[in-house]
Amino acid sequence: MTDAPRPEARAPRGFVDRRARDLAFERQILAKVSAVYERYGFEALDTGALEYADALGKFLPDADRPNEGVFALQDDDEQWMALRYDLTAPLARFVAQNWETLPKPFRRYAFGSVWRNEKPGPGRFREFTQCDADTVGSARPEADAEIIAMAVEGLEAAGLPTGSAVIKINNRKLLNGLLAAAGVTDEAQKLGVLRAVDKLDRLGPEGVRLLLGEGRKDESGAFTKGAGLSAAGADAVLAFTAAGASGRSETLDKIAAVIGGSAEGDEGLAELAAIDRALASLGVGADRAMFDPSIVRGLEYYTGAVFEAELLLQTKDEKGNAVRFGSIGGGGRYDDLVARFTGERTPATGFSFGVSRLASALRAAGRELGGETRGPVVVIAFSQDDMPHYFQVVGELRSAGIPAEVYLGGSSMKAQMKYADRRMAPAAIMLGGDEIAAGKVTIKDLDLGRALSAGVTDNTEWREQRPGQQTIDRGELVAAVRKIIEAQG
């Protein structure tokens, strides 16, 4: 050892370490959702972690170093690259680069890590896994409907019971039509209205009314400038957001009565009506996908239909207190994104959810898949001289598809058994000198021991038929271990 300063062991803020249980849970979610997406005819695509900074679009650099919102570095050719902050911007670049050779429409899904150089906080990370599905090249509202139906089925496949989440759908053209009828044509003012409405769930109607008008001062005293609508204009917007009804067709009727028959508003209504018909044909009712005029989505690149998945399950925090989880995913139509590269409008629509957030939501609702991650069968090491025998045993088990390891620490048998239990091993294999000489092996059923220690009393027959420890012929090892694993399910 030297006297040199030692670094403090610490993870960077906004980055988390995940062990086997978390990884296994998220992999199960991705496997189940991917199977749904592929059944709908979407192909998998993986783009690189880095994109040129100017291709990302949302965080275009306005200084010598484009590090606002993204993690960026300069290549040896002096071009700036940045870690992708979502999976949609890389898709737009890929489509523009390969459009001539792609099937059209191009239907793809993707999942992977994304990075955002933003202030971390509770539930807000700088690195997380997203899962996206998009259709590029179809302007039909039915393409939106398929994305919505697929999102519904994908979330249910991930572990959400039917009726425990709902996709809320709106169309940006409806609000645009309403604002046009009110004489609002300035794009910055429109964006201010969208951002105000997007806070409806958090601030309520009166808080949003202030943001639609002159502005709002929050609890800390900070003032947010408003969109500058008149009182009548703010009333019209709030009346529009409150036009939801239990059924999709009833909601459309109420919206039509509010927006006043503007050309763009009528176009949005027609698109929602087509989405309604397609969803009905796909068997997706209003309990799983509903129209909600208050959904606008914050990103300004959406051009038509927008949708957001809301969790309805009762959820609790770590202290057992009831909490509202809210949105677990969203998306919409973005017909202008590919045009940044090509100059030509290319229709596109998609849905995205954060895998870690969905996993957290499922856990909070008590719906985690699988439970504890199973560990390997552990072969107890009694003697260094008998290591070849121990490795023959793990070789047999591994060849049979059973995870296994020889204990390679230097501890007592008691400590080794504690290790096996901590690894959630289904069984421990004991191979002493006498057993080796006699061609025998002793198996300790750790699953049974855990069940008994947990006070399992409702399956007496199951317990009586399972010896806690048995010595058998070496040739019966694999079958006996497999029986223990299969009994646990």
Automatic annotation (TrEMBL):
Belongs to the class-II aminoacyl-tRNA synthetase family. It comes from the Bacteria. GO terms for molecular function: histidine-tRNA ligase activity. It is an enzyme of class 6 (ligase). It catalyses: tRNA(His) + L-histidine + ATP = L-histidyl-tRNA(His) + AMP + diphosphate + H(+). HAMAP family: His_tRNA_synth. Homodimer. This is Histidine--tRNA ligase. Keywords: Aminoacyl-tRNA synthetase, ATP-binding, Cytoplasm, Ligase, Nucleotide-binding, Protein biosynthesis. Residues 38-376 form the Aminoacyl-transfer RNA synthetases class-II family profile domain. It comes from Phenylobacterium koreense. InterPro entries: aa-tRNA-synth_II, aa-tRNA-synth_II/BPL/LPL, Anticodon-bd, Anticodon-bd_dom_sf, His-tRNA-ligase, HisRS-like_core, HisRS/HisZ, HisRS_anticodon. Its EC number is 6.1.1.21. SUPFAM superfamilies: Class II aaRS ABD-related (SSF52954), Class II aaRS and biotin synthetases (SSF55681).
